[in-house]
Amino acid sequence: MTHKIAILGASGYTGAELVRLIASHPNMEIKALTASRKAGQSMAQVFPFLRHLDLPELVTIEEVDFSEIDLCFCALPHATSQAVIRELPKDLKIVDLSADFRLRDPAEYTKWYGGVHDALELQAEAVYGLTEFYRDDIRGARLVAGTGCNAATGQYALRPLIADRVIALDDIIINLITGVSGAGRSLKENLLHAELSEGAHGYAVGGTHRHLGEFDQEFSAIAGEPVRVQFTPHLIPANRGILGTVYVKGSPEAVYKSLAQAYENEPFMIMLPFGETPSTRHVRGSNFCHVGVTGDRIEGRAIVMVALDNLTKGSSGQALQNANLMLGEDETAGLMMAPVFP
Amino acid sequence: MTHKIAILGASGYTGAELVRLIASHPNMEIKALTASRKAGQSMAQVFPFLRHLDLPELVTIEEVDFSEIDLCFCALPHATSQAVIRELPKDLKIVDLSADFRLRDPAEYTKWYGGVHDALELQAEAVYGLTEFYRDDIRGARLVAGTGCNAATGQYALRPLIADRVIALDDIIINLITGVSGAGRSLKENLLHAELSEGAHGYAVGGTHRHLGEFDQEFSAIAGEPVRVQFTPHLIPANRGILGTVYVKGSPEAVYKSLAQAYENEPFMIMLPFGETPSTRHVRGSNFCHVGVTGDRIEGRAIVMVALDNLTKGSSGQALQNANLMLGEDETAGLMMAPVFP
Amino acid sequence: MTHKIAILGASGYTGAELVRLIASHPNMEIKALTASRKAGQSMAQVFPFLRHLDLPELVTIEEVDFSEIDLCFCALPHATSQAVIRELPKDLKIVDLSADFRLRDPAEYTKWYGGVHDALELQAEAVYGLTEFYRDDIRGARLVAGTGCNAATGQYALRPLIADRVIALDDIIINLITGVSGAGRSLKENLLHAELSEGAHGYAVGGTHRHLGEFDQEFSAIAGEPVRVQFTPHLIPANRGILGTVYVKGSPEAVYKSLAQAYENEPFMIMLPFGETPSTRHVRGSNFCHVGVTGDRIEGRAIVMVALDNLTKGSSGQALQNANLMLGEDETAGLMMAPVFP
Amino acid sequence: MTHKIAILGASGYTGAELVRLIASHPNMEIKALTASRKAGQSMAQVFPFLRHLDLPELVTIEEVDFSEIDLCFCALPHATSQAVIRELPKDLKIVDLSADFRLRDPAEYTKWYGGVHDALELQAEAVYGLTEFYRDDIRGARLVAGTGCNAATGQYALRPLIADRVIALDDIIINLITGVSGAGRSLKENLLHAELSEGAHGYAVGGTHRHLGEFDQEFSAIAGEPVRVQFTPHLIPANRGILGTVYVKGSPEAVYKSLAQAYENEPFMIMLPFGETPSTRHVRGSNFCHVGVTGDRIEGRAIVMVALDNLTKGSSGQALQNANLMLGEDETAGLMMAPVFP
Known about the structure:
Four copies of one chain form a homotetramer.
Chain A lengths: L2 E6 L4 H10 L5 E7 L8 H4 L11 E2 L11 E4 L5 H7 L6 E4 L9 H8 L6 H6 L1 E2 L2 H9 L3 E3 L3 H15 L9 E6 L14 H4 L4 E2 L9 H12 L6 E6 L6 E8 L2 H11 L6 E3 L17 E7 L5 E8 L3 H15 L16
Parallel strand pairs in A: 1-2, 1-4, 2-3, 4-5, 5-7, 6-7, 8-10, 12-13
Antiparallel strand pairs in A: 8-11, 9-10, 11-14, 13-14
Helix pairs in contact in A: 1-11, 6-11, 7-9, 7-10
InterPro entries (chains A, B, C, D): AGPR, AGPR_dimerisation_dom, AGPR_type-1, NAD(P)-bd_dom_sf, Semialdehyde_DH_NAD-bd
Enzyme class (chains A, B, C, D): oxidoreductase
Protein name (chains A, B, C, D): N-acetyl-gamma-glutamyl-phosphate reductase
């Protein structure tokens, strides 16, 4: 059976990545693609790399006949997303890639994203989309909230460790290096090739990055007490990829064991041998996530490193993984392609 | 039916690219991987991006039991390749990615590659592997000689034009920009990131690049008279991709028509609308080839631009396309993945 | 004696490059910096790499007291530039970096840039700023029109050859590879790091690039007859650098001799030994220009390759070289810094 | 007065960077350049970006007449350096860029670099070359040991904080992102453009990087008690630049004040306003070092970020700064060039 798919916000990178992935999916067909400002254009115009595909033209959301859609991906900006989803049919399966339904507490939403959440009834229904940890809920969900790409990276390093109580909870640092596609197709000076290439800088330093809302929510829920981590992202000249370097206090062996057990049967989570560390280049374009653990020369300290592709495992691949579950497909359908190297 | 595959020379980029592609092939199984200096290592050690796959360990060629192999890819250096293939079973299907069996005239081989060709009986048997133009021969071949990646690019621009006599034969310039993976995994100062990034240079300027041997052979055969082109490759900081900018004298409309007809039913050859030009970024990691034609302000001159991924359409993807034909598989099996962008 | 300098349009790359160069000039002092939208900001805010310098705040052009300025660099967009310069004091020395005063024929200006030229009396006065060929005129000029960066590159390859009549005039191809800073600080999708990195594409293919106006004017004037060249620029992931690969018909030895003679005593023009070719990486950040000549395997054809830094020798360095002449300074003052490699 | 300079090991990046800098120095002249394997070649062959300079040919160390040299830079590998320097005239001023004379305790040298130190009498004489903190000693020194580039970065962030006791000493994390030129011109697969570009990875994770020896020595000396930090370097696709992100426990305001006071009168140390963070792109090719401090949302924690160019401020620029002091020149001579951006 072929599932009919709509992608709202197909002119951005996560929308295009969804098209790329679904094009190789055995049981999905793209029936509608929307883009507000680029409606009327073909995907070949907006993304010439998809030129070989036979795709529907970009239309406005209003033009979509949702009665023929089985599942809808929303790759819209936050705030826009909730306004759009509120108007969609109430029985339509939806995977949202925005931040709008990630935070269960409306006050937290306002704190990190500004504005008042306007679709609280949907929020109540939404399941947090970190597949490996919410798999059963996602299977039965109608609305799944894709996680932030940085938020996913940090959680892959830390959730099992907090759950297993093998690290101190008051002294966790998530240092992160990210490629530029996570910033989207937005036109900003510091995203120009001339300004981004050949260097590195930190941003949202000092506990101000929005994905901290997800860390706070999830880690506190696991711990059963408030957990606050430090989080510093850095931007480098790479299109795809996030490398999380997470500093924790605990026995490196216990840390390794906790993660290895958690990911033992996960199709996309790859534990490296103890002492080896990952590279974003080795997961590029794929849905795989590499996890490495090393000890430090200072006893009782460990470093967990996680590498994933922010557009795939960090957002659109994760979204498809969730959609597979929601539609009763094999979770890995369309997602087993190897990384592209070099 | 699952075909059993061996890859000789699996520690180089074209070998690894073959593994990447075959991993998604519905009817192929990798039974043997060889690497002389790295024998005994796992592919995960040599190419950690393949870590998620269950692959045979790297062995020496001598250790391979070829009786259980249906088809063998040779991704070895030229000269080595002929020496190895000469010793392989005479009924084994082989796709060679080296230069050893591309040139039908042994004198030409010596001219461009030095040394004497030592397997002339195999040369007589070999079919030139530019799939779109040798498809029928490849289907029945035992030994197929993969083309040079630059040679493929230039031929996609020019073969139909020469065959259709729509351009002057004595004034053809193939200007080419190539990414660095075409140089292989060789350790040279000018391939270091610090020396290659942030700039461009020409190499083998002035009619000295070895792929000229293929241009001479093929273009002259099509024309029925000696054809000599100018060819200048340039190296830029990109891992994958070749952009050919080919200057010809002829009617731009006739040039466009000739190419459009030639590629009308080709699954991987994509003609852009007249006046549009391709980008290597739009074919990265895929087996697609984009072809564009523009006229010049000077009447009677046209510019043909061709973009392909040197590791995929330019070598390993082409090799798999040919292997599909040789094994009676669908020509596109395992090769329809979309490019990776951004 | 210290010359007092104003830079109009200091928030763009050529403006910032002027500041970088003048900061090391022994006899220049920056008295005024303007930027329309960013007036009121400090240069440290707009270009943090200049943070160590003690610079005047950005102001509007109206706020500048030109009576205290000895020489003014205009790094404004074309059309804006002529409107601004028309209002400046008539005895103020000006080096304009825009396209507004490069083309002597107003019809040509309209053809390539659109709109009507509105300052024809200034055009009549302006000297074309390719220093090596207009040195004497520049020395006495009040208004110098900086050349296009691509136009400079092509002319360095071809002017002596046309003057010396060593090449055919009806069959010249300027193939050019350029870094991205030439496109300026403009916010366009295709200049984003995610879209520009890792690939190459041609643009303004087919004789439509504006710098052709300069080629037509200059080459025809030298030849004493209309000369029309082919010109195809390509954009690659590098911040700085232009590599011109120029295909000509003529004796390679005569071509080499003509260029070697022309540049024999030029402080910034470096001839490579015959048969060697340049790299943009070897002139990065400097005012030097490397020129190489090779023959082709086809007799009577030569390839001239020219590498320069578009922001330095191609615009702001050239501008300073001209300003030095206009102010009676040593032509090389502030410009002898070595390239930055790697 | 012009000082006569020799550079031993001129075929590596730090050697070439010394030549670049000295070429603009008002009072230095390069009299000898050595390179063991490349002796007999010209610098133009080894580093074509220096082609415009009139430089002595590369020779072996044995061929140098040290009697005519005022100061010698040693840019040789560690272990080689001590063997060479031992044989040089005992009154020759030397700035060593290797690791050989950085560690005062021979046991520490053996621990981090292996092998036994063979020139302990020279070690006793050597002054540690972090100019801002050893200025007076350097002025009178005969042998100065240039610091590690990572070691310099971490110390710029931490020395004043440890001296002023404004941070906890047992919980310091130096997270570092570095460009690739720090690895030198060595031929390794992971330094190839194809393997390094488009991603990030950590290396020497877990307290195994050799520059920890310098951190241990210097921080413990300042504190008067053993201090052990965590240090994780990451490699990214940039040629130049180190970005240190240093996590400390202490009042952010006190941290800022301590650093601002320490660097108040330093010509190359630039404090950013509180809350702003630096980028390596803004110091590229220069001797400047940008320092930023932010608080975290968790009280009592601060993040210090330091950006410098590893080849300039991190090694060859530092070396020249020290040489200036040793020769009685202005400390900033030849070093005030602005960074190159973009």
